[in-house]
């Protein structure tokens, strides 16, 4: 099980780096991109944790996360298209 | 035979981890939103593919392997769709790619008032 632990640690370090980009990101789309990537990496982490602990039930949760990730990204992007994310104050007026 | 499969899983899982780390470094150091899409694509294709292949080798011909193949196929289908929608929404909002000869220098177009909608 050491190999899965090594891959899990690599994926977790990558999640930390992508979260740093989500905090730094100059535009809102950088943050959406980081959120999408964190979703993919969360699926990988779930599958790897299922292998580390020997419980393959985690794979079902991973499939669910894959579908939710796409729906969430498309929904957020559609909201941005409608609400003019570059000038939010103007959109409110 | 078991040892060969174990060694192949080690190689695949470590390669996937390295590709994930390369993608993470790219997400931090790339200068532009559109170039960061490439770094995210490395995580979505190569990193995910190698790690899932390593797990499939350890699972063997079981239901677990079938579920892993379903996960890989779903990510490979949905990740380009999300990336395309993201790039299109960014262009629609007025973010231009940072080019060498670009006079706007990659700024958000709304900031200098060049293409307000």
Description:
The complex is a heterodimer of chains A (93) and B (117). By secondary structure, chain A is mainly alpha-helical. Helices cover 86% and strands 0% of the residues of chain A. The longest helix of chain A has 26 residues. The model of chain A has no long low-confidence stretch (mean pLDDT 84). Chain B has one domain. Helix content of chain B is 76%, strand content 0%. Chain B has four helices and no strands. The N and C termini of chain B lie far apart (64 Å). At the A-B interface, helix 1, helix 2 and helix 3 of A face helix 1, helix 2, helix 3 and helix 4 of B.
Short overview:
By secondary structure, chain A is mainly α. Chain A is built from 4 helices and no strands.
How is the main sheet of chain A built?
Answer: none
- Which secondary-structure class do the elements of chain A indicate? mainly alpha
Percent of sequence in beta strands of chain B = under 5%
Number of strands of chain B: 0
Count interface residues per chain for the largest interface. Answer: A-B, 47 and 55 residues
Number of strands of chain A: 0
Oligomer: heterodimer
Counting structural domains of chain A, the number is 1
Query: What is the straight-line distance between the termini of chain B?
Result: 64 Å
Query: Distance N terminus to C terminus of chain A?
Result: 57 Å
Shape of chain A: flat
Mean pLDDT of chain B: 84
What's the helix and strand layout?
The complex is a heterodimer of chains A (93) and B (117).
Chain A: H1 2-24, H2 28-53, H3 58-83, H4 88-92
Helix pairs in contact in A: 1-2, 2-3
Chain B: H1 2-29, H2 33-59, H3 63-92, H4 109-112
Sum up the structure in keywords.
heterodimer; A: 93 residues; mainly alpha; 86% helix; flat; B: 117 residues; 76% helix; disordered C terminus
